[in-house]
Write a structure and sequence with these properties.
The complex is a heterodimer of chains A (313) and B (265). Chain A is mainly α and 313 residues long. Chain A has 14 helices and no strands. Chain B has helices at 2-6, 8-22, 54-90, 92-105, 110-120, 126-153, 156-163, 168-204, 215-223, 231-258. Chain B is elongated and about 75 Å long. Classes of the chains: A mainly alpha (313), B mainly alpha (265).
Chain lengths: 313, 265
């Protein structure tokens, strides 16, 4: 088992290295001069040459690549183009926790909403009395998949901050935890849509299994049988879907960070893209890709923990 | 209800084709006397910053959206089906290499991949945005087409045509491809809705097709004006939702037509 994890980890790191190397060469292959982008069209050729030299852009590609790998190994990731006194690592370390808190909250909200609702929906679909739960589950699934973050976010602000005034407006410095509700909810509802649909479908299938009937015969309540016996058996496809949603989670944070004027990895990336700040682009790419593959690995490990059958394979 | 929704893409296409011709104003016509007005008889959907007519922006934006969506999904399907069929049919090392390439592309969230590529271009146009979106978009179609081809490989149909002495390239073009296209067409229809959202999201981030009018850019403007002028964000927001729902329902409808066995209920 540990050997298997080590192997997967090594493969994940190779993927990250390939992605970052690709980014390194692509940003240097495209036309357009970063020095001009930073200094503006008005700068003299001498000024540009001086900047290019200080950014190592006049060196051969191999030397630049070696310097880049060195900066990865010493953990600084180089210095930002826009502020030579600041390392890329410092910029990323400042932004990362913001994104982590946002994404983590969104993830918790999504699962806390989707699993009970999908389960109740499946139970409701089997009985007349529970129709309302099923309708609610299907409404959440439909709403979350039809309304993307760029629409759901402004809609949430309009309803909860402008009309009802129960949640703070974007950019409110003193908002505290309440300020996290709308941004995390915007991402969370999008993720919850797929999860609710999957939970409902899986539970509908599992609820008619003989072991659920057996549990009911032993005197367990319907809810008890559903949550104790059917749900664990439905967890596997849920975790798989959850892992597949990580891209949407990271992509969603970029949109939401801009919409709600929050600092974070997405803001750093979009600003670096705009300013052609190559070291920041490289560093942020590295961090995003690393987060992504590690989270995927974690998802697989959870999968193994949930389902003993996958261990042998 | 779902039939009605499935007709929404037709409305979207009509807006994209003739919308800019019948629009009341140019999408960038400035009218400082009528800035940020709610819907009225002069501006049916109201006006945005600088008195720009929202209806006109929406109609021209529909064309931008449609162009980006069809170009990017078209390219994704072309590349994805080609590589997926190849990977599934040939198998072995080629399959390994193509699947690994798909994994590599997906080791990065697709919207960030597109944003990165667009940021490399000095003045991104509709073609650049579409290309940037298909760089991540082909993987889905590759996986689907590969799975369909693999499923077909074990069937008697292929054994039979091979026994008849049909050459390999003909087997692929005449027997494998046509039999895998159904799910691809359904997926592509639904991907069009996703592409409209992706284009709007990129424009929202300021990384859209430069000067072309766009729903996402209007939404970005409106998001900052929610407190006093909510109509600026609501109009493009509603249009995006209706388009997504429409293409989703359209895909479901196509699935029912193409594969009666999959008909639900």
């Amino acid at each position: 088992m540990p050997r298997q994890i080590g192997l997967r980890l090594a493969r994940a790191l190779v993927t990250v290295w390939a992605a970052v190397t690709l980014v390194f060469f692509v940003v240097r292959a495209v036309p357009g001069d970063p020095a001009t982008a930073i200094l503006g069209e008005a700068a003299s050729p001498e000024e540009r040459d001086a900047l290019r030299a200080s950014l190592l852009l006049d060196r051969p590609l191999a030397a630049q690549y070696a310097a880049f790998l060195g900066s990865v190994l010493d953990g600084s990731l180089g210095r930002t183009f826009r502020d030579p006194d600041r390392t890329v690592a410092a910029e990323l370390v400042e932004a990362y926790p913001h994104t982590l808190v946002l994404a983590g909250t969104a993830l918790v909200l999504a699962w806390a909403l989707a699993v009970p609702l999908g389960t109740l929906g499946a139970l409701g679909a089997r009985r007349r009395a529970g129709r309302r739960w099923d309708a609610l589950a299907r409404a959440v699934a439909a709403l979350g998949s039809a309304v993307p973050a760029i629409v759901l976010g402004p809609l949430g602000i309009l309803v909860f901050a402008v009309l009802l005034r129960v949640l703070p407006m974007p950019g409110d410095e003193e908002a505290g935890l309440l300020g996290l509700v709308l941004p995390a909810g915007t991402i969370g509802l999008g993720l919850a849509a797929g999860l609710t649909r999957q939970t409902r479908a899986q539970m509908l299938e599992k609820l008619s299994e003989p072991y659920v009937t057996a549990a009911r015969a032993r005197g367990l309540s319907e809810l008890g049988a559903a949550f104790r016996h059917a749900l664990p058996n439905a967890a596997l496809p849920l975790v798989t879907l959850g892992t597949a949603q990580l891209g949407a989670l990271l992509g969603g944070s970029v949109i939401v960070e801009r919409l709600f004027e929050r600092p974070g990895l997405g803001t750093v990336l979009v600003e670096a893209f705009g300013a052609r700040d190559i070291p920041v682009v490289q560093g942020a790419t590295l961090v995003v890709a690393l987060t992504y593959v590690l989270a995927n690995l974690l998802g697989d490990l959870v999968l193994t923990a949930v389902d003993p059958r996958t261990r042998a394979a | 209800m779902s039939r009605l929704a499935a007709a929404l893409p037709l409305l979207f296409l009509a807006a994209a084709l003739v919308g800019p011709l019948v629009a009341p104003c140019a999408p960038d016509a400035i009218d400082l006397g009528h800035e940020l007005e709610p819907p009225s008889s002069a501006h049916w959907l109201g006006s945005a910053e600088n008195g720009v007519d929202i209806l006109s922006v929406m109609l021209s934006g529909a064309r931008t959206s449609a162009l980006v969506a069809f170009l990017s999904v078209g390219a994704s399907v072309l590349v994805g089906v080609l590589l997926g069929t190849l990977a599934g049919y040939v198998g072995g090392r080629l399959d390994g290499a193509i699947s690994a390439l798909g994994d590599l592309v997906q080791s990065f969230p697709s919207i960030l991949l597109s944003a990165f590529v667009i940021s490399l271009v000095e003045r991104p146009g509709i073609g650049h945005v579409a290309l940037a979106m298909s760089l991540g978009g082909w993987v889905l179609f590759m996986r689907l087409s590969r799975a369909e081809t693999l499923a077909l490989k074990g069937r008697e149909l292929l054994v039979a045509v091979r026994a008849l002495g049909v050459p390999e390239h003909r087997i692929v073009t005449r027997h494998v491809l046509p039999n895998t296209l159904g799910p691809i067409v359904v997926q592509a229809t639904q991907a069009l809705g996703g592409a409209v959202v992706a284009e709007a999201s990129l424009s929202f981030l300021g990384l859209g097709p430069g000067t072309a009018p766009s729903w996402g850019a209007l939404l970005d403007q409106g998001a900052g004006l929610l407190l006093r002028f909510p109509h600026v964000a609501l109009v493009p927001g509603l249009a995006i939702v209706l388009t997504v729902v429409g293409f989703q329902a359209g895909g479901d409808q196509l699935r029912d037509w193409l594969d009666p066995r999959a008909r639900r209920r």
